[in-house]
C-alpha cells in the first residue's frame, strides 16, 4: 500500500449531511447565546461535570458563567478535602446529583457533598492495588435515573459500584469484576499491562475503553472494546492491529496481531452522541524506537479513528505517522468544534499530538479542512529497520510547539560553561534532520521529543465556538539505539550481580550507570528503598510508570535480582533470594534468565528480528533539571479554528527557583495539565509550580492566581450546585526524586467559589 492510499481512509458515508448544515441566520452567525445553546450536541449542555473532561465530547469546557472575567479575582476557598495520605494524585473529580467523586485515601473512591466537601461514603481500593484508573472514572445512569453507577478499572479488572452508596455491584461481570486481559487473542498470563489509567467513554448503555500496553517488545495489542454497563458483557471489539481480512491487515507483516503490541488509546476519546460516533486517537506500535518486526505503515497506530459507537464499525481514519519509531502518540483526546469554513458551518474534529501539529477534519467524512501533504523523509540505516518513505504534514494550522533544536536554541540559563559546551557538542554532532530523523546507532535529535508537544488532557475547546486551546511542552530528546545484549547472554553470578546485569541491560539507558536519572522527568533510583516497598518496585518494573515502559516478560527471578541490586542488600540477603514470596514473586527460578524471551505463540511467517535495539527516552535536561532548550518550556496556545491561525501564545507557569532570581515566564517544564475553558471567558489551569491560574480566554492575560501547598497536575472540574459555581482542583501531585529530601506533602482537593451574599 503506497503513501497516497494512507493519506486518508474511508469506510462508509453518512447521508443527508447537507441537511445538517443549512444556512443559519445572521444572529446565529454572530454567535449570540441562542446560537451557542442550539449548537451544542444533543445531551451535551456542558453545565454539569459528570464525565471525565466535563462531557462525552471531551471538550474540557463549562457553559457556566457565574465566575467570569469581572469577578474571578474574588475567588476564595469554599472547602478542602484532604486525601489522607501523601500519594500522588492527578484525578479529575466528577459531580452528579449533589455528590463529587474523587480518588483519595490509599486509592479509594470517595463521595463528597458537592457543596461542603464533607465525606459521604468510601469505596476502599483493592488490596495491593498496582494499577488504577487514576486520572478519572466514568459515571452512568439509566434513562429513568433509578440506576446510577461508577465504572472504573483496578488491577486489570473492570468494576461497577453504586454511585449512591459506593457498594460493589456483584451482578456486574463475575462477582462484580470483568477481567480485561481476557479476549485479546493472547495468553492472558503473558500480558503484564492492559488497563489504562485514563477512563473510557460512556455511550448509552456502553462503556467504550482503550488500554495501556507497555512500551516494549511483546506488549499487548491495543484493541478498542465496548462493554455493557449493566452486565459487563463484551459487546464489540475493534482491532487496532488488524486481523486477517480486516482493513489495514496488509500494512503489517503476516500475523503481526499475534505478537506486536501497542496502537492503543491510552489518553482519551471524544463522542458525538447525536451521530453515535466515537473518535479514538491511537499511539505508536511497540517497540517505540525500532520496528524491524513490524515492517509497513502499521495501521491503525498513530491514527484518529472514527468508529460507530454502537457497533465498533470503522467509518473513517487518518494516520498521522506512518511506521512510528519516535513514540509520537496522539496523546490528547480529540476536540469537537463547529467552525466556519469555505463559506459554511462545518462540524469538525481536531486532534493535537506530540509532534506539535493540529490536525482538523470534517467530523462526518474525515476530509481534512486544510491541505495535508506527504513529504519524503530519510531512510534508516539501522540493520533490519525499514522506515516509511514519506510522512504527512498539515499545512494549516501552524504548529504549537517548536520542532527543531539547534545550537542557536540552546538555553542561555545553563550556568556551567562546561555543561553548555557539552550540549553544544552533542547538538552539533547529532543526526538532526527534523521531526522524522530516524533513531540511529549514533546520537539522534528528536524535537519536540517523545514527551514533548501535547500530552494527555492538554487541549480544550469551546464546542459552540471556534476556539481551541493547547497546553504543550518543549522537551528535546537525544535518542541512540544500542543492541539489546540481554538476548544473547545470561548472568551467572550472585543474585545481586545478576540484578546489576538486568539493570545494565534495561535500565541504564534512562537512569544512568549511577542510578541518578534526570529528575524530575526520570527519577533517581538512589535510595529507592526509602520511598517504595519491594512490592511497589516489582509492580513498577512489571507495569511501567509514566514514560517508563514495563517489562512483562522479565522472569520472576530477574525481578527479584533487580530489586536486590537496587536495594543494595547485604550479601547474605542477596544470596537468599530475598526470601520466598518477597514482592509477590514466588519461588525463584534460575532457568532461562533473559528479558523479552520469545512468546509462546506460534512463530509467524515474519519472525521477530534476532537482534533487537533499545534506546532511552533521552530527555535533554540540564543539571538544574530543566530542558536544555531556551525557554519557554511550556506554553498555552489559542487558535482561531475558523481561520486556522494562532490568536496568542503564552508561557505557562514558572520554575520557582528561577523566579526567585527574577527569571520569569519560563513556563514550568513537564506539564501534564488539562486546561478548562468556561463561558465566563476564562481558562483555568493547575500546574506543578503549586499554582492555580485563571487566564483571559481572549488575550491569555493572567486574571487570578492562587498558590497551594502541593504541586498540581491533571485538569480542574467546574460545576454548579444550588446557584453557586465551583472550581475544584487536585492539589496532590508530590514527587520525591531526591532521597535526601524526604519531604512528605499531604495532598487535598480544593474547591474555589465566589463569596456568598453577605460573606461565607
Question: Characteristics of this structure?
Answer:
five-stranded mixed sheet, Cytochrome Bc1 Complex, Chain D, domain 2, disordered N terminus, mainly beta, 10% helix, five-stranded antiparallel sheet, Methanol Dehydrogenase, Chain A, 760 residues
Summarize the structure.
With 760 residues, the chain is mainly beta. The chain contains 11 helices and 41 strands.
Name the CATH homologous superfamily of the largest domain: Quinoprotein alcohol dehydrogenase-like superfamily
Q: Any idea what the shape is?
A: globular
Strand order of the largest sheet: 1-21-20-18-17
Summing up helix and strand content along with how strands pair, one would put the structural category as mainly beta
SS summary, helix count: 11
Instruction: Please give the CATH class of the largest domain.
Output: Mainly Beta
Quick one: how many beta strands? 41
Number of domains: 2
Verbal overview:
With 760 residues, this protein is mainly beta. It has two domains: 3-479 and 621-753, Methanol Dehydrogenase, Chain A (8 Propeller); 485-595, Cytochrome Bc1 Complex, Chain D, domain 2. The strands form twelve sheets. It has a five-stranded antiparallel β-sheet with strand order 1-21-20-18-17, with no helix packed on it. It has a five-stranded mixed β-sheet with strand order 2-35-36-37-38, with no helix packed on it. Helix 6 (495-506) crosses helix 9 (556-567). The protein starts with a helix and ends in a 7-residue tail after the last strand. 54% of the residues are buried. Mean pLDDT is 85; it is low at 1-43, 569-606 and 736-741.
Amino acid at each position: 500500500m503506497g503513501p497516497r492510499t494512507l493519506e486518508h481512509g474511508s469506510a462508509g458515508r453518512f447521508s443527508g449531511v447537507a441537511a445538517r448544515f443549512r444556512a443559519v441566520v445572521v444572529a446565529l452567525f454572530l454567535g449570540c447565546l441562542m446560537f451557542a445553546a442550539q449548537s451544542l450536541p444533543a445531551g451535551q449542555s456542558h453545565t454539569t461535570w459528570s464525565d471525565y473532561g466535563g462531557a462525552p465530547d471531551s471538550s474540557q469546557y463549562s457553559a457556566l458563567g457565574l465566575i467570569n472575567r469581572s469577578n474571578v479575582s474574588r475567588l476564595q476557598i469554599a472547602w478542602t478535602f484532604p486525601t489522607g495520605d501523601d500519594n500522588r494524585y492527578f484525578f479529575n473529580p466528577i459531580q452528579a446529583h449533589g455528590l463529587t467523586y474523587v480518588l483519595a485515601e490509599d486509592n479509594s473512591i470517595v463521595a463528597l457533598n458537592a457543596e461542603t466537601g464533607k465525606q459521604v461514603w468510601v469505596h476502599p481500593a483493592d488490596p495491593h492495588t498496582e494499577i488504577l484508573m487514576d486520572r478519572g472514572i466514568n459515571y452512568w445512569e439509566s434513562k429513568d435515573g433509578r440506576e446510577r453507577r461508577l465504572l472504573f478499572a483496578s488491577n486489570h479488572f473492570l468494576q461497577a459500584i453504586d454511585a449512591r452508596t459506593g457498594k460493589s455491584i456483584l451482578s456486574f461481570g463475575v462477582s462484580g469484576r470483568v477481567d480485561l486481559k481476557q479476549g485479546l487473542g493472547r495468553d492472558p498470563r503473558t500480558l503484564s499491562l492492559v488497563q489504562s489509567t485514563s477512563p473510557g467513554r460512556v455511550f448509552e448503555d456502553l462503556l467504550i475503553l482503550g488500554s495501556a500496553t507497555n512500551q516494549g517488545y511483546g506488549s499487548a495489542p491495543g484493541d478498542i472494546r465496548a462493554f455493557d454497563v449493566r452486565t459487563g458483557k463484551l459487546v464489540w471489539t475493534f482491532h487496532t492491529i488488524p486481523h486477517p481480512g480486516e482493513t489495514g491487515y496488509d500494512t503489517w507483516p503476516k500475523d503481526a496481531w499475534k505478537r506486536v503490541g501497542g496502537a492503543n488509546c491510552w489518553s482519551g476519546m471524544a463522542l458525538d452522541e447525536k451521530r453515535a460516533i466515537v473518535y479514538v486517537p491511537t499511539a505508536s506500535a511497540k517497540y517505540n524506537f525500532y520496528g524491524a518486526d513490524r515492517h509497513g505503515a502499521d495501521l491503525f497506530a498513530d491514527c484518529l479513528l472514527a468508529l460507530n459507537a454502537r457497533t465498533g464499525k470503522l467509518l473513517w481514519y487518518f494516520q498521522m505517522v506512518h511506521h512510528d519509531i519516535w513514540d509520537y502518540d496522539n496523546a490528547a483526546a480529540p476536540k469537537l468544534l463547529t467552525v466556519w469554513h469555505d463559506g459554511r458551518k462545518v462540524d469538525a474534529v481536531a486532534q493535537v499530538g506530540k509532534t506539535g501539529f493540529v490536525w482538523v477534519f470534517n467530523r462526518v467524512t474525515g476530509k481534512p479542512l486544510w491541505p495535508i501533504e506527504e513529504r519524503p523523509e530519510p531512510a534508516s540505516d539501522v540493520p533490519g529497520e525499514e522506515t516509511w518513505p514519506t510522512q504527512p504534514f498539515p499545512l494549516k494550522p501552524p504548529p504549537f510547539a517548536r520542532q527543531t533544536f539547534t545550537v542557536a536554541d540552546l538555553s542561555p540559563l545553563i550556568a556551567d560553561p562546561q555543561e553548555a559546551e557539552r550540549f553544544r557538542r552533542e547538538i552539533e554532532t547529532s543526526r538532526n534532520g527534523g521531526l522524522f530523523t530516524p533513531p540511529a546507532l549514533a546520537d539522534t535529535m528528536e524535537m519536540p521529543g517523545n514527551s514533548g508537544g501535547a500530552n494527555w488532557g492538554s487541549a480544550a475547546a469551546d464546542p459552540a465556538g471556534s476556539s481551541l486551546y493547547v497546553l504543550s511542552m518543549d522537551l528535546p530528546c537525544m535518542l541512540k539505539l544500542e543492541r539489546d545484549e540481554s538476548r544473547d547472554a545470561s548472568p551467572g553470578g550472585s543474585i545481586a550481580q545478576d540484578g546489576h546485569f538486568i539493570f545494565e541491560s534495561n535500565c541504564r539507558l534512562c537512569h544512568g550507570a549511577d542510578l541518578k536519572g534526570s529528575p524530575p522527568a526520570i527519577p533517581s533510583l538512589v535510595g529507592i528503598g526509602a520511598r517504595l516497598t519491594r512490592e511497589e518496585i516489582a509492580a513498577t518494573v512489571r507495569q511501567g510508570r509514566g514514560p517508563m515502559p514495563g517489562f512483562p516478560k522479565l522472569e520472576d527471578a530477574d525481578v527479584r535480582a533487580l530489586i536486590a541490586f537496587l536495594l543494595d542488600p547485604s550479601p547474605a540477603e542477596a544470596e537468599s533470594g530475598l526470601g520466598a514470596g518477597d514482592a509477590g514473586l514466588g519461588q525463584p527460578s534460575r532457568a532461562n534468565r533473559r528479558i523479552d524471551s520469545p512468546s509462546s505463540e506460534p512463530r509467524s511467517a515474519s519472525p521477530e528480528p534476532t537482534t533487537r535495539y533499545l534506546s532511552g527516552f533521552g530527555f535533554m535536561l540540564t543539571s538544574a533539571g530543566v530542558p536544555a532548550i531556551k525557554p519557554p518550556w511550556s506554553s498555552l496556545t489559542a487558535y482561531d479554528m475558523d481561520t486556522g491561525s494562532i490568536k496568542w501564545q503564552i508561557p505557562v507557569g514558572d520554575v520557582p527557583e528561577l523566579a526567585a532570581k527574577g527569571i520569569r515566564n519560563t513556563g514550568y517544564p513537564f506539564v501534564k495539565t488539562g486546561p478548562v475553558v468556561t463561558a465566563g471567558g476564562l481558562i483555568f489551569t493547575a500546574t506543578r509550580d503549586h499554582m492555580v491560574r485563571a487566564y483571559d480566554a481572549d488575550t491569555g492575560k493572567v486574571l487570578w492566581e492562587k498558590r497551594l501547598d502541593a504541586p498540581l497536575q491533571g485538569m480542574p472540574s467546574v460545576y454548579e450546585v444550588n446557584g453557586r459555581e465551583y472550581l475544584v482542583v487536585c492539589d496532590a501531585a508530590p514527587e520525591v526524586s531526591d532521597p535526601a529530601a524526604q519531604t512528605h506533602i499531604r495532598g487535598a482537593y480544593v474547591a474555589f467559589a465566589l463569596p456568598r451574599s453577605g460573606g461565607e
